[in-house]
């Protein structure tokens, strides 16, 4: 591996020149009064005149624009430093209200007064994310479906209509094009070191944000429009994210982490101030700041491993406008762009753990997608939960430890770090579709178990309902279910089936928990597996909806029965419901068992043996159709219990006939 000490920059030569030198080539002093009106407002014309255009197609000439704007940025930086906090708040705070995060912009002003390199980088990352979110809100004044990428947002006609194209071109020079300074991307993707980010660009963006607020206020008054802010994303079910419990991240472990960053080969020495600032922010309960600082450093550290293990050292540097960055998405992929196998998982001691964690927290659609949501301004930075920060900090410490010389630590330090390392070793994916399916199955089973607690009228009263037949049909269905179970028991754990009561001894929550606990490798799941899992998830979701409808319907009908408010036809229908519940519970539990067995066997078969999964999908979709019909017929609007019994019988016959297909599949997996 290339020694981290030897890397002096992660910026390619053209990018380094654009950011670190181009804006300093003109040394003439720019008079701040040229762009300030008498009341301190920004004179946009005096700024936009510094944007230069190519003669060929009148597109922005980014090189000349950066050169021309350099002295302006320096003048703005000096001007802001000359203001006290009180003066700045009085003059400019109201112009940040349109961003819905005024406090963040005021904090950036504080940073500029002391010019600590890492904090300037942090300020720019926060500023760009909040600015992007606010510009997206403005976009929605005139359009729908706000663009996901900042460059597309800045290039939109909607924002040009509100602010003017000249103003948007100014923003493009700083944050909207890989041919410009591209400050957002080089920071959020971990390419820029603290010393490579001029503070004057942070000051200029802060000043421009206030200027945008001035323009927007005029636009809103003229059009009588109201700016509506989209709600922030709120993390729910925080317990699902708790891979690294906060109790393990005490002051002692954080002190060890501060030493680790100085010793670990995972850390580029030029990035050390970012790591130190991240740990300091965490100790100060500035959890959003800590995570914002750490995510790019995890990316650049993994990029170092990726480029060395795949023998492409040039990919450590920023890409030009004609190429792509080497980012998390590519580093976590199974294959490289050229089709070769990605060697990064081989370098990681526990590839499944590290990759599963990163996929869970950064990529999976049902996961928290922390990096996306933070960088695009979707999260309230002031209320960022510690529970989420714990995960990123905990993971970062384990990675630092893995790529450090273990002999450097005393036994005591090892004992302190061991619980974190154990958490890492035990990690299993939580947001992969397979993991979500397991969760769905168990939640549905818990719901079905509630049926046993449903209030019900005595059996003798039900039998007195005129026109209501006995339970012969339900008994027939239950017998068919028992037969199917007997065919499946050879492929389930031993001693889980009682010959006296196969349904209640097999179709249990305990068995499903045991089967769902089977470890399945979710990393690089084949497309066939993902397609099958998608259908299984839809089946599970339909079963859960049926269960919820039965619980709600049975409770309502019982109350009406007790209060004697049911008409004759409703009493008859209620009786059919009670009869149907007797077989519906084992039917749904059987389907959940089949889903779980399918999950384990299909994944194994796809890994080991080719098979016609399209034909298999057809079979699964027929089960899905049955569950969709169940949802319809058991709904409060339909209440078609006779029809439910009839097509359940047809489906069980079909399941029994096709069970050989199922058994063949399970056999292949064993």
TrEMBL record:
Pfam families, sorted: DUF4209
Gene name as annotated: Ermard
All copies of domain DUF4209, residue ranges: 131-210
Entry protein name: EMARD protein
């Amino acid at each position: 591996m290339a020694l981290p000490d030897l890397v002096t920059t992660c910026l390619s030569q053209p990018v380094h020149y654009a950011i670190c030198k181009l804006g300093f080539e003109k040394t003439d002093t720019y008079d701040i009064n040229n762009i300030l009106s008498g009341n301190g407002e920004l004179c946009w014309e005096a700024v936009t005149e510094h944007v230069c255009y190519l003669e060929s197609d009148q597109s922005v000439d980014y090189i000349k624009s950066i050169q021309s704007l350099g002295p302006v940025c320096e003048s703005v930086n000096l001007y802001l430093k000359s203001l006290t906090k009180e003066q700045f708040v009085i003059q400019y705070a109201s112009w940040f209200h349109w961003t819905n995060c005024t406090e963040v912009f005021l904090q950036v002003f504080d940073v500029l007064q002391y010019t600590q390199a890492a904090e300037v980088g942090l300020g720019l990352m926060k500023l760009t994310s909040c600015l992007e979110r606010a510009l997206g809100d403005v976009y929605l004044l005139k359009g729908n479906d706000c663009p996901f990428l900042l460059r597309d947002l800045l290039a939109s006609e909607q924002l040009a209509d509100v602010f003017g194209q000249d103003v948007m071109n100014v923003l493009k020079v700083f944050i909207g094009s890989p041919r410009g300074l591209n400050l957002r991307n080089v920071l959020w993707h971990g390419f820029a070191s603290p010393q490579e980010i001029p503070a004057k660009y942070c000051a200029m963006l802060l000043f421009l944000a206030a200027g945008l607020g001035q323009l927007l206020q005029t636009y809103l008054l003229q059009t009588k429009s109201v700016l509506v802010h989209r709600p922030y994303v709120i993390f729910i079910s925080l317990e699902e994210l708790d891979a690294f419990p906060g109790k393990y991240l005490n002051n002692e472990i954080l002190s060890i982490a501060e030493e680790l960053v100085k010793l670990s080969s995972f850390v580029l020495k030029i990035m050390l101030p970012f790591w130190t600032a991240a740990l300091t922010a965490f100790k100060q309960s500035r959890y959003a700041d800590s995570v914002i600082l750490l995510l790019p450093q995890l990316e650049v550290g993994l990029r170092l491993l990726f480029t060395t293990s795949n023998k492409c050292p040039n990919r450590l540097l920023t890409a030009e406008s004609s190429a792509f960055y080497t980012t998390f998405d590519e580093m976590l992929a199974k294959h490289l762009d050229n089709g070769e196998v990605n060697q990064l998982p081989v370098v990681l001691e526990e590839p499944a753990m590290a990759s599963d964690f990163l996929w869970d927290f950064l990529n999976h659609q049902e996961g928290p997608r922390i990096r996306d949501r933070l960088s695009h301004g979707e999260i309230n930075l002031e209320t960022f939960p510690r529970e989420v920060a714990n995960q990123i900090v905990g993971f970062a410490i384990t990675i630092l430890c893995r790529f450090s010389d273990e002999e450097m630590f005393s036994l005591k330090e090892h004992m302190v770090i061991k619980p974190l390392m154990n958490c890492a070793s035990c990690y299993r994916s939580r947001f992969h579709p397979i993991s979500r399916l397991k969760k769905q199955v168990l939640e549905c089973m818990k719901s079905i178990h509630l049926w046993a607690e449903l209030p019900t009228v005595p059996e003798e009263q039900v039998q007195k309902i005129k026109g209501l037949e006995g339970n012969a049909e339900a008994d027939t269905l239950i017998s068919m279910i028992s037969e199917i179970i007997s065919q499946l028991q050879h492929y389930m754990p031993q001693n889980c089936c009682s010959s006296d009561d196969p349904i209640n001894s097999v179709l249990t929550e305990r068995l499903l928990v045991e089967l769902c606990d089977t470890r399945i490798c979710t990393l690089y799941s084949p497309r066939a597996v993902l397609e099958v899992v998608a259908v299984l998830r839809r089946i599970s979701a339909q079963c859960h909806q049926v269960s919820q409808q039965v619980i709600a319907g049975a409770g309502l009908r019982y109350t009406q029965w007790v209060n004697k408010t049911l008409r004759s036809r409703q009493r008859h229908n209620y009786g059919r419901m009670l009869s149907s519940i007797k077989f519906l519970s084992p039917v749904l539990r059987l389907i959940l068992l089949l889903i779980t067995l399918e999950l384990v066997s299909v994944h194994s078969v796809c890994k080991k043996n080719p098979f016609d999964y399209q034909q298999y999908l057809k079979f699964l979709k027929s089960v899905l159709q049955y569950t969709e019909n169940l949802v319809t017929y058991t709904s409060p609007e339909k209440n078609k219990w006779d029809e439910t019994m009839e097509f359940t019988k047809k489906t069980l016959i079909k399941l029994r006939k096709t069970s050989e297909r199922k058994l063949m599949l399970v056999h292949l997996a064993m």
